[in-house]
Amino acid sequence: MRDNPIFATVDFDKDGVQHGHLRLPHSRNDSAWGSIMIPICVIKNGHGPCALFTGANHGDEYEGPLALVSLAQEIDRAKITGRVILLPFMNQPAFAAGTRVSPLDQGNMNRVFPGRPDGTPTQKIADYFQRTLLPMADIVLDFHSGGKTLDFLPFAASHVLDDKDHEARCRAARNAFNAPFSVEMREIDALGMYDDAAETMGKTFVTTELGGGGTTTPETVRIARKGARNLLIHAGILAGTLDLSPTRYLSQPDTSCFHFADEAGLIDFAVNLGDRVQTEDLLARIWDIHHPERAAKVVKAQTDGIVTARHYPGLVQAGDCLTVISVEHAP
Ligand code: ZN
What is the pLDDT of residue 331? Predict the structure, then answer.
């Protein structure tokens, strides 16, 4: 396997607080010997566990970047045992463009793992995580939100894993993050995800969906900041006590939870995020934008549960995910 071309301006083994960059050579028309500069903060104090926290895996999701820029500035090194690696803008070109995928190669960071050292910019960044950053980490947090096209109830999530001890470790970390909702998440498209790369290495892994629509609210940012701190305390890296509030437990036991549009049109939701619905309840109508005289297409709930996610823009395309319904259960 070839070496990854990324150069880190920080020393991962040095004690102290370092703010630097991952410098990825990117030769292009406006900069012959140019680079992509991905900010990285490393806080290390002695020996202990290592946390790897990322925001902007998708470039139009903002709670993670906001939580991690403030954590990078505020964290007190004297209260740390071990190492914290923060990357607020994981897919920096996508983040700078305000888009889900990278404008350089249309690369979706959460579908390209394990990446390639000789691939496109997004593949090279993924390869650096796969072979350099993830192996250093004990606990991994990857922030997500709905971006411009989805909106979610604010939740932290863990996955069902083959190794039940590993699954319990991830679930405990998810609960320590302590979002208003804690989800056992089913992925509809897991191939190439960072989640899977981290979990395959046995890392304690937590992800989130904290809102969406391509923006934030003060509440979703507060949840993100509190969760990141809680996770460092839970991992034994940051001194302090967990800040805990009540959480509700949700899961997506099968594919009936996911509702897709089979026609394009103008979406007319009948439910809000957080609503409790029963099978056959009206979720939405889709109006034909070329023929307003035609009856709207009706979308009904395929299962009982809580409305956890919804399509965000007013127009839908055939194949769009319209809603996700989760089942609420005891811890
Ligand atoms: Zn995302």
Answer: 87
Q: Which CATH number fits domain 7-251: 3.30.450.20, 3.40.50.300, 3.40.630.10, 3.30.420.40?
A: 3.40.630.10
Give the whole-angstrom CA distance, residue 248 versus residue 29: 51
Tell me whether the CATH fold assigned to 7-251 matches the one assigned to 255-329.
no
- Residue 57 CA to ligand 1 centre (angstroms): 6
Q: What is the mean pLDDT of the chain?
A: 97
| Dist. CA 144 → ligand 1 center (Å) | 4
> How many angstroms does the Cα of residue 146 sit away from the middle of ligand 1?
6
CA of 45 to the centre of ligand 1 (A): 31
**C-alpha 222 – ligand 1 centre gap (Å):** 18
Map residue 226 onto helix, strand or coil.
helix
**Residue 254 alpha carbon to ligand 1 centre in Å:** 21
Q: Which residues contact 287 (CB under 8 A, 6 or more apart)?
A: 265, 266, 268, 296
Tokens 């579908």 found at: 111
Judge whether residue 188 has pLDDT over 80. Answer: no
**Separation of 292 CA from ligand 1 center, angstroms?**
34
Q: State the distance from the centre of ligand 1 to the C-alpha of 276, rounded, in angstroms.
A: 25
Which CATH number applies to 255-329? 2.40.50.100
Cα(147) to ligand 1 centroid in Å equals 7
Q: How far is the CA of 35 from the centre of ligand 1 (A)?
A: 25
| pLDDT at residue 144, as a whole number | 98
Q: 13: CA distance to ligand 1 center in Å?
A: 30
* Beta pairing class for 248-251 and 321-329: antiparallel
Copy the structure tokens of residue 33.
């010997």
Q: Please give the sequence-ordered ranges of beta strands (E in DSSP) within 47-138, or none if there are none.
A: 50-54, 82-87
Gyration radius of the chain over CA positions: 20
Query: What local confidence, expressed as pLDDT, does residue 189 receive?
Result: 79
Plot region of 59 (φ>0 → left; ψ -120 to 50 → alpha; else → beta): alpha
